[in-house]
Amino acid sequence: MLLVLDANVIVADPMLRSAIWPQLADAVKGGRVEVLLPTLALEEAIASYQRVREAKAVEIQAVGRKASRDVQGHLERAKKAALREGRRYPKRIRTALEAVGVSMIDAPRVSHREVARRAIARRRPFDENGSGYRDTLHWMSVLEVVDERYENEDIVFVSADRRAFGGEGNARDELHQHLVDDLAEYGAVDPWFLWIQSLAEFSVPGLFHDEIQEGFDIAVSGGEISGYLQSALWELSLGDLLPRELGTAGETAAVFITDIGEPLVGEVEVRQYWERGDFRADFFTTVDVELALQRVRSADGDVEVQEDRVVLPFVTSGHVDVAVSREGLMFSGLELEPFASVETE
Question: Is the pLDDT of residue 297 over 50?
């Protein structure tokens, strides 16, 4: 899923302090969402913040004209602090966006002639007075994302600017027909392309259990995941999951697994979340597996085959779908990353 942000998203929360940003960072890190911000939108947000800080400095200076010298000294420091915040903001917001995992996208490749044609035709985001140049560039950026990514990704555009993007009259919460027509050229339609006015309306893919306040009636423990894995691993082809490099000591030319015992699942770290309307659980665990091995060693031209039986610990991660039935929790859709052996002395 792609999330494309307009400048007003940053303007409304210039320090990225709302609770949704850590959730987005988690989803970006987990590969469940990609957050895009046009470079021009960031520059607009920075300019807006700096104007606010400059206006605050002017306000403080005006108050100081009628204050005592002692108070004037405090106000002068406050004025300098306001201006300093404005100067530091570009670096601060870029650092914050990078921490979330927001990706910047370049200015749109649209020609000046095309933008001028839209202005002359009063085609949204241009209004009846021909104003809306920056909003049109933002929209052109969105259309480029649609052109390049819509075939494989759902796209959500976030902008609070209903004047630029909303319809007429009672339809201001819906995309203007001009913009719907733009999207139709790419086959982009609701619900695979959505326009929302606030990040608060966005359901973060992978919203985690400990961040959901109400309406959550499923809870999976590490023990329940462990029990499921215990049976599921036995049914899987473990030989395909185990690493071929087993980290055995000595000058070993090759290692062959001849038999695999029942895997024993250790303590499970589990995190639960909603994704695309389904409940899932991510987990990370250690698994002890008894292996019958044939180690082939070669030394001074001689080949030696040694049989051994060892218990080796491995680590694995994955996720599983969870549902509730009359019989209790039901697990399905298990996906595992290939195991990695734990180094032991």
Answer: yes
